[in-house]
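Figure-free illustration: sequence to structure, shown twice.
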Amino acid sequence: MTKVFIDGSVGTTGLRIFERLNERKDLSLITLSEEKRKDADARREAINSADIAFLCLPDAAAVEAVSFVENKNTAIIDTSTAHRTAPEFDYGFAELSGLREKIAKSKRVANPGCHASGFIALVEPLVKSGIISKSQRLDCVSLTGYSGGGKKMIAEYEGEDRSPLLSAPRMYGLSQSHKHLKEMKAICSLENAPSFCPIVAPFYSGMQVTVSLFRDEINGSLKTIQDCYREYYKSGLVSFCENADEDGFLSAAAYSGRDDMQVTVSGNEERIVLVSRFDNLGKGASGAAIQNMNILLGIDEKTGLVF
């Protein structure tokens, strides 16, 4: 039976991974008591006793956890930002060309960021196909539910005396230095990081990432992009939808509670909008991490997931 350890199982992502894996009969979870969960020696022993260890930690703690690994058979799935562009880690977005095969053989997998997942799903196939040039400057807006901010933000939004400012969407990342920008640029092979506007809104979970294009700045048309996505996303948990219109709207909560992702294209022959929708805690976090674990185990990658 596969032994799994979740380092950081009390955070939002770690807790959701634990709850899902605890129901599976093919896995044995290694757990630490409350007084031991931050003890370095106890964590080191647990990591090296595991076949797969999830790191659901702040970046510095994730780097420390990787340094604990002495067992060459232990595979690491890191959900932090620390290793997403590190050469010794494989990027854990299985639907991108060639990555599923790398993940299957890997001992070091970096789980993608939530905002980054939506952007990369839209942009990487278009760069690879030459529809978008590597030098193109892009704009991205990403709307997320408040659970993406972790326990502290969840408590703020669900508190009895919450600020009235929380009742409307709030922009953040105002300095254009959001931690996901590095992987967004690198994984898409872009020469420039996008102008990025993340927004948190008063709903629990769900995500909607948009990238806007002008027809005269790309090599193709709306139909060219549709055909590219249709061909590119044939397996895994990302799918293309030609018409996702919901009576003239697209809801960011449409994929809440799910582990898959929808990509779609709207607009006209002058202005085009690319849209990805998913759950920030699903394909944007714990769902993707479990999908990567399933690939490492050589089983159906959708095992235990909601789609």
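We now fold a second protein in the same way, so the two outputs can be compared directly.
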Amino acid sequence: MAGKNKKITLKRIQQIFFRSQIILIVSLALFLGVAGTLINIHFETQKRDQNLQNVAETIARSPMLIDDGKDSAILAEYLDSLKDTLDNIDVISVVGKDNVRLYHSNHELIGTVYDGTTPEFESDEEGYYATNDIGPSGTQRRAYAAIYDADGNYIGFVMAIMLMQNIHRETLQTAFIFILITIAAILMELLISTELSGTIKKSLLGYEPDVFSAMYQVRDNILESLDEGIIAVDREGTVQFVNHAASAMLGDRNIVGQQLDNVKLCSENVLMDKVPIRENDETVGEVAILHDRAEYMKLVEDLTGTRYLVDSMRANNHDFTNKLHVILGLIQMEMYEEAVSYIENITIVQRATISKIMNAVNEPAVAALLIGKTARASELNVKFILREGCYYSNTDMNLPSEVLVTVIGNLIDNAFEAMNEKNDAYDVQKELLFGIYSRPGAVLITTDDTGTGISEQDLEHIFENGYSTKGEGRGTGLYQVKTMVESLGGTITVESQEGAGTSFSVSFTK
């Protein structure tokens, strides 16, 4: 049933074209056929009457009829031969003044009395005229012509006759020809409409017009509902379509018909991506997608936070594996109370650490980073301490989260490396104190470690690109941190004492 409905749908456009074309061509053909037939009959009637009148007049002016001493046999022979040369004349009749037939194509009527309509030539200035009448041969069309002698006296008349049955036959032949022309025109129009419907359907990619229209409306609704700006461009680079979002981002400018390369963005907060449209390995246009930089950066921040949450989970997983090994060992040693106490302690510590970070920092990416670094510190046997009073809110000063993540991540990683260099000092507790504080218009970030410290000579070069005491391919982290901080108007300072540790301080103010 579904296949049948699909077949009917696919033929709908042909049916529409056939129906409309048939109605048009049949109506037009009938109108032209009827009008042509009537016009043709009218002209044929005039031509026929003129022919009949010419024949009647020619015979009436023949010297053989005017001569008083005319021979009936010679007259009959003459008129018979004349009639044989006239295919469209059925009867010729000559009637004398006394209404006796001097000649008739039917020789049996020669000499008989004519009892038909007697023409009145006095009312006809031409001396001849045509009319319909009934004679011995049936209904007929007659043309009369008066015969006058040399002195101008009326001596009779001539009738040139064409039978109505022959006239009707010619009329039917004319109508039949027009019918054939009409049928041929209809067949030609059907072929043309079939080809035209196929061409149109091909240009519509095989869809019916109503389906194509519905698809266009759905596509238009989808494009207009997007938050991203959409600009469609043809192969010449001319803008063909702009949705409402793109129009709003461009300051409600009408750019349809303009070159996309000449369109300038009205704000630096708008980003543009271009995607080429290819058909049969040929670029036939492109789609420009406009993004709101604020939304784009928010998405980047969310993704960055997600990445660090994953890193945090990976680090915690490693830390939890170590703790599970401890628990397994305590159980195998049948130290059940110690195992329960150990589980309770690590649960409390873990929960307290995460809760403290989440309460202090409301930026997801930064909080995820600190949670991950806490787990990493546990693996490195470093005591990670979040300073009391830490609080950060991006409403106080909206700094890009990727900048904060880069700055804090580099500072903490440098601290871890510095403290891991003290492999020979097992009796020294490795501690990292981290602080982040914000108030309206200002942000402060601090790190204090108990690492090896930095010499005065190295302290002057630590922010230079590529400078490092740990080998080649290093020395870019602090340079990147300093560059980012200063690009946002902030400052970074460092204090260090060899053998005691290092402190970094980063501040931002409006």
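Summary for the second example: The longest helix spans residues 12-60.
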